[in-house]
Amino acid sequence: MVILTTEEKLQHFLEFCMEDARSRSAKMLDEYTTALEQTFSEHQEDAKRRARQQVASESEQIEREINKQLSLEQIGTKREFGKKQDELKEKLFQELQEMVNQFRNTPQYTELIEKEIREAKELAGKEFITIYIDPADEEKIRNLSLPESADIRVSEYSFMGGTRAVIPNRHILIDNSFQTKLAEAKRDYRFNIKDLMGGTEND
Questions:
Q1: Residue 132 phi, psi dihedral angles, 5° rounding
Q2: Is 120 in contact with 113 (CB distance < 8 Å)?
Q3: Residues whose CB is less than 8 angstroms from the CB of residue 156 and which lie 6 or more positions away in sequence, other chains included
Q4: Using the 8-state DSSP alphabet, how is residue 27 labeled?
Q5: Phi/psi of residue 165, each to 5°?
Q6: b/e map of 157-184 (b: 16 or more CB within 10 Å)?
Q7: What count of other Cβ atoms lies within 10 Å of the Cβ of residue 131?
Q8: How far apart are CA 103 and CA 57, in angstroms?
Q9: pLDDT digits over 61-102, tens only?
Q10: For residues 129 and 166, is the Cβ–Cβ distance under 8 A?
């Protein structure tokens, strides 16, 4: 049996306490390190999550801005396209008007006037009918082969050629004026996108 002196007992106790303190300190340090790592990991995940949310939010904002810009550009393009169509349409019908004016100086135009007068008389039958020709065509009356009892009058207003006729008892207006025909054609005319793009129907 070993008998320890008081000094040895104190030394032994001190070493025990120091070892215990080191052990508990190491354990506390490990726990603190683990807690710090856990906190850092959670903070990192939270930062990544917030970053993803921000990226998603900014992506949506960018996409909305892009869609808005595309929409505005599309509206502008359609407006310009419509304006160009109107310009081309106006030019087309100006050229058509010139062709009509040239046609009115041909024998074929006189034949057309005669044909329209005969057809109007046939439609009226025995009913009274008044047929009007354009003021610019007044001199052509002498050259027309008119049906008997046809009431041919020169209109007070120009209607660009052709004829107009009225059957009062039947409330019928026969409008073969070039003015009306051109207006109707212009109103109903639509450009084919293939024509404007220089393509064909089979492109």
A1: -110, 140
A2: no
A3: 135
A4: H
A5: -145, 150
A6: eebbbbbbbbbeeeeeebebbbbebbee
A7: 24
A8: 68
A9: 898 889 888 888 889 888 888 888 888 889 999 999 999 999
A10: yes
Q: Comparing C-alpha atoms, which of 102, 92, 100 is closest to residue 162?
A: 100
If you ran DSSP here, which 8-state letter would residue 147 be given?
P
Angle (CA) 178-183-187 rounded to 5° is 150
Q: What is the DSSP letter of 157?
A: S
Is the pLDDT at 3 greater than 60? The verdict is yes
**How many residues does the structure list for the chain?**
203
Rounded CA-CA distance 168/35 in Å is 105
Tokens of 111: 């034949």
Determine contact, residues 163/116, Cβ cutoff 8 Å.
yes
Q: Check pLDDT > 50 for residue 132.
A: yes
Beta-strand pair 163-167/151-154: unpaired
- pLDDT at residue 199 greater than cutoff 70: no
